[in-house]
Amino acid sequence: MSRIVIRSGTVVSLDTDIGDVEDADILIEDGEIVEIGHGLSTENAEVIDASDHIVLPGFVDSHIHIAQTQVRGIAGDWSLMGEYFEHMLGNITGLYQPEDMYLGGLFGALEKLHTGTTTALDWSYPNTLEHGERAVDALKDAGLRAVYTYGPPGDDAPKWWYESDVGLPEQNIRELYDEKIRDDNLLSLALGLRGPDFCTDEISRSDMELARELGALATIHMGAAQWTSSEYNDDYQGFGAIHDMLGPDVNIAHGNHFTQEDIQHAVDAGASFSSTPEVEMQMGHGIPVTGKVLEAGGRPTWGVDVCSNISGDMGTQMRIGLQVQRMLENQNLLENGEEVLEVGLTARDTLEMATIEGARALGMEDEIGTLTPGKRADIIMIDTDDFATAPAHSPVQTVVFQSDPSHIDTVLVDGKPVKRDGALLNPAVDEEFDRFVDSGYRLVEEAGIDL
After folding, report:
1. Which residues have a Cβ under 8 Å from the Cβ of 335 and sit 6 or more positions away?
2. Contacts of 209 (CB under 8 A, 6+ apart)
3. Strand ranges (DSSP E) for 349-421?
4. With 50 as the cut, is the pLDDT of residue 233 above it?
5. Pairing state of beta strands 20-29 and 32-37?
């Protein structure tokens, strides 16, 4: 039995029964959190000193396209309906070779770990089964807990998008799941559905039925910019053909333009929403769905989305998502002649959206998302003995507002350290770096992107 004791940290458990505990120890056995307390025995255990550190659950990114990592820095001035659709879905994704999927996925997953994300939903566009296999290999080799999302291939945009009448490649999905995912403790399967925005009603329903048959999460891009589900009238239901198929196994990415009634319907059905605020505000998706989901009694989750555009740091999404919603609420008061005397959402709220709410959206709330005995030890430690974080008067506010990836000292996934003393432990960081960079340069050059 492997035993680790994290010693003398400020534990922000995000478990309402445990709360925040000063100078606390965490006992981990075979990847499971066994006990949180004081003075726990360190016999036959590796000891990790957490004094002057905040210890909390790893972040959960509920929506990201990880394989775009080696073309990072090209989409920062793009809109969704202009350059992104033209250059990314209509061009670059079709140029990916299986090894490009591996290298982008590997370094994207390593970036997630480096920046404190221990679980991510990787929305993938595998051109072939081999592309999907190498994308999954990348997640495995990085050591990230992940939901691999098999979406439509990226090699023929007119076929797979724009009123597509072609279903997801079922045989490839089944083979990939059986051979690469089914028996892996850190991986699970989702299907990347196009929904009524991008395919026929028949395909929308059949893809959803396939996800249900496989017991896979269904995650859907919907309701952004001027997509079909953004167009409403008295007779139109925003979810179209899948209106009656929503449930806890459905995750909706974006949803910016859904009516409050549609949001209420989805929340009541148990569906989750992934908001990716930084990308949505830039690319023209619309106002993040946060406020509507909260009004409906739900809680949104945060995601990075397009890492060809922005960094993979979830801390940034926590802050932007929180402050945008505060701004909207504050402006509403000001326009009605009222003073802003208190803020609505709190730092703890946005941290929960980046952890336990993300876990819940991915169907993992019983495994991760809080530091709770019986859950898996996906844990990060943030250094508070630094001129930029000290003094840490409020641990939660220090995490949300004062820290950045440079302060994430230690990361564990399933009880295994993957980052110590501020550095990733995976040798692939150095061994595969040159191939990763070369892949990115080749893809941008072949795509003819003018930067």
Report:
1. none
2. none
3. 379-383, 408-413, 416-420
4. no
5. antiparallel
